[in-house]
Write a structure and sequence with these properties.
Rossmann fold, six-stranded mixed β-sheet
Length: about 475
């Protein structure tokens, strides 16, 4: 069979038949459970995919671990039915109700003539493309789709007439502009439409309102609402009960009397962030924002206040992904903490700011405070987190946009009783290969934790670092 011309379109999917998805190796190494994520459709694995899995299984990296896990899954599936593997092994036999399709392994060489547009027939990518073409030839009534995380692979597939797409299962959103921001502006007529049968009372110095109306169903628990008019109104959704919500007014952290370790909120979003960071009922906080919006400073200030002053937590633990922006500088000497120090410049910068807020202490007082703070802050590497449990700790995960959803799950599940986890990041600055704004672990947890009563999220929007930094972020 001659290859399709380069400008031909991929075959249109047929509604009557289930599809056959040909998986590239990088999909299995990205998410080993992808074998069970294609619902009623069939999965086809070329032999070269198994070879590549075998080549990547050695080592302690996340990729090697995923390759080993994918191989274990395949062993379970195949050993459940040793005969007639060519026609496929039902995936639902393993108890995965979502996957009702079959897994097929390549048992014969591709018989279709190799496209002349792909000269290197020995290359693994091209062998997978040849298998997809062969499948398309032998299954004219079914839609064959290649699934790959490799953009060039998808381009080559479409060029020779094979439908190709990215692996979307852990991709939360196509457009990150739709990502939950944690706050919304109330319309001007909100009280006119929601003021009927309103109830109000006071608890612990805060005013609470129980309101009913058309907007109630769209609000999430711990979502901040505001009106910026002559008399500004700032509140948080404390509870949602059927067709009513309870709105609770906020503590004003823009006022010096409510300062947190000498820091006050400089804008509305920072005020919201401090309210959620200082709330003992909120166990999980995510803060998104560009460089200079104050994510690390606000988090550190609230961590120090609750650890050293209020004694809510026993220790502050800070960790981050060690993905370099430029070329790696090689091995670093010293202990785990000393190796992490070059990555913790942001921590030192913010501690300098927090330490300078106490003007009355003098040089000796500030030095003593710095030593006290350093004794209660532990810098840990992500590599040694598996199996740990943190009790009564304030855990800060910095640069969380570089984590995969699986890594994020590993970290958050370390939290024991009395521990608060705060994730900070800017999804516009992702340095990890194969991660995008839509598939980042940070985007994933923001979307999944939305509406849980013990979690909060704020997208910080205004830079407060300097006029130079704000202008650079805007124009560059």
């Amino acid at each position: 069979m001659a290859p399709r011309p380069a400008n031909s379109k991929a075959p249109a999917p047929k509604a009557s038949a289930t599809k056959i998805f040909v998986l590239d190796t990088n999909v299995l190494m990205h998410d080993p459970t992808s074998l069970f994520r294609f619902e009623e459709h069939d999965i086809y694995l070329p032999m070269i995919t198994l070879e590549e899995l075998d080549n990547n299984k050695k080592g302690m990296t996340e990729v090697a671990r995923n390759a080993r896990q994918a191989t274990r899954f395949l062993d379970e599936i195949v050993s459940s039915q040793e005969s007639d593997i060519e026609n496929g092994v039902p995936l639902k036999d393993l108890g995965t109700k979502q996957a009702s399709g079959r897994l097929m392994l390549q048992t014969r060489p591709a018989s279709v003539e190799f496209p002349s547009a792909l000269p290197d027939s020995g290359k693994a990518d091209n062998q997978i493309l040849a298998v997809a073409l062969d499948l398309q030839h032998h299954n004219p009534k079914r839609s064959v789709v290649l699934v790959s995380k490799d953009i060039n692979m998808r381009i080559k597939a479409r060029a020779i007439g094979v439908a190709a797409e990215d692996y979307f299962n852990d991709k939360v959103l196509e457009d990150t502009d739709l990502l939950y921001t944690g706050m919304r502006e109330l319309p001007k007529d909100f009280w006119d439409k929601h003021g009927k049968d309103i109830e109000s009372w006071q608890e612990h110095g805060r005013t609470l309102y129980r309101v009913r109306g058309p907007l109630v169903a769209t609000l999430s628990v711990n979502e901040f609402v505001y009106q910026d008019e002559d008399k500004p109104f700032y509140a948080v959704v404390a509870a949602q009960e059927g067709k009513t919500v309870v709105l609770k007014t906020l503590k004003d952290y823009t006022h010096q009397k409510n300062n947190i370790w000498g820091i006050i909120a400089r804008n509305r979003e920072q005020n919201f962030a401090l309210n959620v960071l200082m709330d003992p009922e909120v166990d999980f906080v995510t803060l998104l924002g560009q460089a200079g919006t104050g994510k690390t400073l606000l988090t550190l200030a609230s961590a120090l206040m609750q650890t050293l002053e209020h004694k809510v937590y026993s220790e502050i633990i800070i960790t981050r992904v060690t993905v370099p922006v430029g070329e790696d500088i090689g091995f670093l000497p010293g202990t785990e903490e000393e190796k992490m120090n070059p990555w913790m410049g942001a921590l030192e910068d913010n501690l300098d700011v927090l330490n300078s807020t106490d003007e009355e202490a003098g040089d000796w007082g500030r030095a003593a405070t710095r030593d006290l703070i350093r004794s209660r802050i532990k810098v840990k590497s992500l590599n040694f987190m598996r199996g740990r449990t943190f009790l009564n700790k304030f855990l800060i995960i910095d640069e969380a946009q570089n984590l995969t959803p699986k890594q994020m799950k590993t970290l958050i599940t370390r939290a024991g009783p009395g521990t608060k986890v705060v994730c900070l990041g800017n999804i516009a600055q992702i340095d990890t290969p194969y991660l995008t704004e839509g598939s980042s672990g940070l985007t994933y947890v923001v979307d999944r934790f939305k509406g849980w009563e013990h979690s909060g999220h704020i997208t910080l929007q205004r830079g407060e670092r300097s006029r130079l930094a704000d202008h650079a972020a805007e124009i560059l």
